[in-house]
Amino acid sequence: xxxxxxxxxxxxxxxxxxxxxxxxxxxxxxxxxxxxxxxxxxxxxxxxxxxxxxxxxxxxxxxxxxxxxxxxxxxxxxxxxxxxxxxxxxxxxxxxxxxxxxxxxxxxxxxxxxxxxxxxxxxxxxxxxxxxxxxxxxxxxxxxxxxxxxxxxxxxxxxxxxxxxxxxxxxxxxxxxxxxxxxxxxxxxxxxxxxxxxxxxxxxxxxxxxxxxxxxxxxxxxxxxxxxxxxxxxxxx
Amino acid sequence: xxxxxxxxxxxxxxxxxxxxxxxxxxxxxxxxxxxxxxxxxxxxxxxxxxxxxxxxxxxxxxxxxxxxxxxxxxxxxxxxxxxxxxxxxxxxxxxxxxxxxxxxxxxxxxxxxxxxxxxxxxxxxxxxxxxxxxxxxxxxxxxxxxxxxxxxxxxxxxxxxxxxxxxxxxxxxxxxxxxxxxxxxxxxxxxxxxxxxxxxxxxxxxxxxxxxxxxxxxxxxxxxxxxxxxxxxxxxx
Amino acid sequence: xxxxxxxxxxxxxxxxxxxxxxxxxxxxxxxxxxxxxxxxxxxxxxxxxxxxxxxxxxxxxxxxxxxxxxxxxxxxxxxxxxxxxxxxxxxxxxxxxxxxxxxxxxxxxxxxxxxxxxxxxxxxxxxxxxxxxxxxxxxxxxxxxxxxxxxxxxxxxxxxxxxxxxxxxxxxxxxxxxxxxxxxxxxxxxxxxxxxxxxxxxxxxxxxxxxxxxxxxxxxxxxxxxxxxxxxxxxxx
Amino acid sequence: xxxxxxxxxxxxxxxxxxxxxxxxxxxxxxxxxxxxxxxxxxxxxxxxxxxxxxxxxxxxxxxxxxxxxxxxxxxxxxxxxxxxxxxxxxxxxxxxxxxxxxxxxxxxxxxxxxxxxxxxxxxxxxxxxxxxxxxxxxxxxxxxxxxxxxxxxxxxxxxxxxxxxxxxxxxxxxxxxxxxxxxxxxxxxxxxxxxxxxxxxxxxxxxxxxxxxxxxxxxxxxxxxxxxxxxxxxxxx
Amino acid sequence: xxxxxxxxxxxxxxxxxxxxxxxxxxxxxxxxxxxxxxxxxxxxxxxxxxxxxxxxxxxxxxxxxxxxxxxxxxxxxxxxxxxxxxxxxxxxxxxxxxxxxxxxxxxxxxxxxxxxxxxxxxxxxxxxxxxxxxxxxxxxxxxxxxxxxxxxxxxxxxxxxxxxxxxxxxxxxxxxxxxxxxxxxxxxxxxxxxxxxxxxxxxxxxxxxxxxxxxxxxxxxxxxxxxxxxxxxxxxx
Amino acid sequence: xxxxxxxxxxxxxxxxxxxxxxxxxxxxxxxxxxxxxxxxxxxxxxxxxxxxxxxxxxxxxxxxxxxxxxxxxxxxxxxxxxxxxxxxxxxxxxxxxxxxxxxxxxxxxxxxxxxxxxxxxxxxxxxxxxxxxxxxxxxxxxxxxxxxxxxxxxxxxxxxxxxxxxxxxxxxxxxxxxxxxxxxxxxxxxxxxxxxxxxxxxxxxxxxxxxxxxxxxxxxxxxxxxxxxxxxxxxxx
Lengths: 237, 237, 237, 237, 237, 237
Known about the structure:
homohexamer; two-stranded parallel sheet
């Protein structure tokens, strides 16, 4: 399980910074493309991935009554995704019909789930925009899901927004979008990202004060020393 | 003509709910794709469709002076679309030049038209965002229309956002987008959607109170009874 | 250099009006497609173009340490784009990795640059949305730039949003988007656009008062006379 | 009606050359985008446009039995498009279901129609590839038409491949694709294109013989004289 | 298992005809979009689906050595797909890297597999074009698979070309593309399609002989009688 | 300069094999996307890149007479690209107007240039398909270039088909498409690719003979020994 300290650290860093940490380790494809926050103020979102996979609908199978089956994978996921996790839906990037709507998101929120992500679209987005529950999608999509989507299974490796998502990967969302951290790297990347974030806070102050970027960003040894001094000063009681 | 009661009922339901009612009757393609509200606060929008059709521009025909012709179909539509109707423009999904701008929309608003929809883009969108007149489009588009669009005719069947629109179809818009109801089904669908909306209001209360979805959504007979009790209690004086 | 009077005039007209003036002169492709304001309240933006060109990244060249080179064209541009200019980046319309982030934009702002435009995406967009510095892009993009972009050179003719941009062209941005004025036409177009804007202000009043469009927009001689009277009245002390 | 001489002239020039002649007259958008020959050997194709317009299908209207109506616009067009004309179908660029199949194309061929064009797709393309009847489309598409298309009307102005097509415009197809000539310019453009074609034949000989392009293409006065001499020599008995 | 008679019947009908039979039963989405034959002469292809699912690659997992694992799902599928089946790969419609190449296809052919389908691309397509083994894809794609694809599992329900494919569904490919028949309908649809094919053969003769379409296609009762007479005559010894 | 031995080696390997060699060295993006051979039989193509860059056209600059300027970069490139090189054009992936036509390609062929590549389209493709000169593009495009393209400069780093191309990089084309080799790696990659090609020839024989893939592809030590024996046997006189 993702430790509380790691979760808190990740809530304090941006998805942009995380992509830089991942790039240093050779990961070039970790930010979900075309996936946006419905309600940016609800964030940040941090949690391990619980996955749900959609395939295209078939007219004889995907009817509204299919939702009466308690094992229907979409409804199963909504009731079984553990608290603190992020429900990630592979909608094949197809936002022409809804991946879920406000009632399901409310249920997830009440159950303590950390957030929801789809590379398709949600319906009832005016309501979702007011929920204090982080939700990320491509674009609003009113049409009922079975028009295009069939929920196939849960907790399998999936793709979402063009990125591989394995169950348990750490999902982080902010006002910009969503990044996927391979599970085994989450702690070390959280640490490094927190460091970078603090450095960039100091850089921001320097830049607003008129300082030029060369030697500052990326850091020269001189800048690094100045930063360490600032950091110590600021941590002093 | 669309009755006032039906109009009011439709103003109280969401496009999402309407797509579900239509799906039950075999309609899978009734929500305009890639068409978004410019000014979500101006809605809801309900009215019968008055259609305007664009084809690609031709350089020798589509010049600014063409607008001097009072029979120019775009200008004709703006002056002749009856009050209470929705002007729906087939822009072939091309938002690289404008379908209309704030002056035309203001004129439509003053004339009592119910709203305007295009699958292209509007210009002057910062102004349109402040008009109390529902307007739906793909994305802002400053370039003047004749660069790409030629207004061909009015009141013919068209496509908009990938959906068939026949003159007189009932167009409903909310904060999520726009749905097209075949004219002959509008009343019965309005009734059904209002029923569903009330049931979902009760479901929302239940879910916020911690109840699980199975048996609730979709409704079991037991849930249906509980809902009816709630409904009666609430209607009691 | 762009005169202060011309700059002020251009700050008072819309990109929509400018595209009409350009269309009258045969220019059909001057509005950047799929380029949107990050922070519409920061505008308007007016300045001559200073260009930066990206090509696709190559794994052995485009590493984070490349930013240590003070001649790295992206960093060079940020330090050398003259005050009052607009930095325009040709990102080949690829928003899958960032063209720049909030630290670089802050530096540009502090240096007095007039704004920044890319047909890719910015990272740190929640921060950029709060900067009083006009910034235009396609969509938020957290991934660090070298994943996809290599900064090749500055001050060469480029394409951005499908439009040719020559160094020195006049770039105008408003709440709708960005238009490119060929340098030699900027003054005459600014004049004409200001005239049109005044006329459209009067038209707006007329339309809100209930007047129909034929003879008004486009203007008949009669309307032109009425407008001139209104204009004189309003300029009278 | 298009004269036989003009038709023959147009059969001897390429669509590439015709776009150049049109560009000289200010026409920039006359070549159908994403429209390709199914059977390049069947060409060239020349004829005046007879237009057919599709809009999106609606499930309750667009059923297979709709084809029993002799006034169904697609079937009407197949039986009424006059010999020598080209049937041009506006399929809204949607090739996910068929615009027509081999039986309809065979009927058109037998009736003496000059060819068929759609910006959607044909079905039965292996058979169509063997018909001596010019056919142009986007890509093969097996699904039966009513899944997506509703035939709305004939002989109205349409768009096809992003280009305006008015009934009577002259349609020319070769192994590369399809160009639209405004009716009133067809004769003068045919003449000019034939001239250019002859000049380019001579240029081709010169280039294959090792001559450089400057002064040759475009022509200098000297080259023009050499060409005229070659032309005279070749016309001499 | 698919019976030999049914297989033979399906080899004699076109994917176009099959989509019509499916549409009559309410199936609107059964033809793989953007999937084309590499080697049309190798067909027809008929067999039950054996499925393979790709998700996006991750840089630390998807390296060339991963192919050394005999349980690597792509290699497992190539060795275990039973003879007579069609290997269908869900490549998420991403043809930027290869789904497979000529060596794997040769192995499948030698093992008696009926064909292969991907909605991505194959590499070594010049070689595949010469193999007598039906192969369908989007477009040629030389880059090695692990650049973008990770083989996740086999024999799960997938999407391919936008269509649901369940293991055991009957896959039919011809010179036009690929259609998916729900397993339980394959026999009845094969019968009906064979009937339609024979009728269309007769219609083709009639049309080539000059007969008009009304009453012929779709068939009137009179046409149906004439067809039956022709059929009997032709079956007579 | 690229040595003759290296050129010959590269002519004997496939672009697919080259992408594998590049992937082993960390290069994931070296195959031009959406770029296809016009005349596959003309290949293979090997040569160092000579680059030409297009930006979007501007109506007042990009007129037909611009071609009269001998320094027009497109015409300059055609006359100055050295023999043995490949002319690579950055057309911004825009195939709506032509990058070049048959006369320019003939001139390049006569001058001994090794081939031409664009990520846009060529015109006169029926003629180009018959030229013994390798040409790669996206799709046929009849419209004359200045409608959309302005030739900006030569021998600058560019992007083509989404891949970085530096002047001097080694360009290899076969029946599948085009790959870019960083100049300094060309020789070592050519060697490795030739080795792989020989191994795959032997694998192909084994597979056609019925051998399974595990242990063969990728190679086990045992397979490697068998291959070496075969190789020696075959090299023996």
